[in-house]
Amino acid sequence: MTSTTDSSTFAIGGDLPVRRLGYGTMQLTGPGHWDLPADPDAARRLLRAAVHDHGINHLDTADAYGPHTVETLIREALHPYPDDLLIATKGGLARPGPNIWRPCGRPEYLTQCAELSLRRLRVDTLDLYYLHRTDPLVPLADQLGALVGLQRAGKIRHIGLSKVTVDQIEQARAITGIAAVQNQHAVTSTDPVLDYCETNGLAYVAFKPFGAAITPPSTGNAVTALRPVEALRTLLARSPAMLVIPGTSSVEHLRVNCAADHSVSADENTTACRRTRS
Fold first, then answer.
1. 193 CB contacts (<8 Å, ≥6 apart)?
2. Which in 80, 123, 200, 261 has the greatest CB count within 10 A?
3. Which of 65, 129, 130, 204 is catalytic?
4. How does pLDDT run across 17-31, given as a tens digit for each residue?
């Protein structure tokens, strides 16, 4: 059973308390989300700044980012990890080339994805592992069955779903417990999955939270759109089950985004108080 702890945190799976403002790592790759970024050292510095300077304790990644690039950068930048750091990763999307994403839910493939993520991140257990996309060509029970097998072996702690509907969540929950759902959600979005997650105690993790609702600083047109901090605060206020994972490759943008967290005042850019997992 998942639960909130206070207005700025959410306990994923009931035992993984994280700040509701996390960091999505998808931008730490090359063009087309392929291969290394132009400056890998800058990417590692950004990861360290997110965790050590700004107190972010929820990083979202995937084996498909690169592919494999970002999980490796996270290990290089942050291992050994702080006790309260949640690194959520995903499997189930094959990457044959730049900007190409293909669902692959064969059980043997999903098992291999998770095993290799364990190695790249250098952890014994993946605390939160998402089925990156449901594969319409493979029975859902077979896809989730592979993850349940890894969970029983102690290699996955909690299972999540990405880009799904309420019906798909209910089908999945008839097979196994689901701790988190990750969908695209911006200020202008509506998603019945959010209400479902709040009612049922699941974390709702919003990726691409800015959508088209952001005013670039150069335009100054605050009448028709929201600035990043305002957009993130609006989303965080939408539901206690709402977690947001804005992505950026800029340390300055990271600093601005972190000002939106309710646990840190707008003029504070230092590390927030951490919580140790029980």
1. 164, 165, 166, 169, 181, 183, 204
2. 261
3. 65
4. 999 999 999 999 999
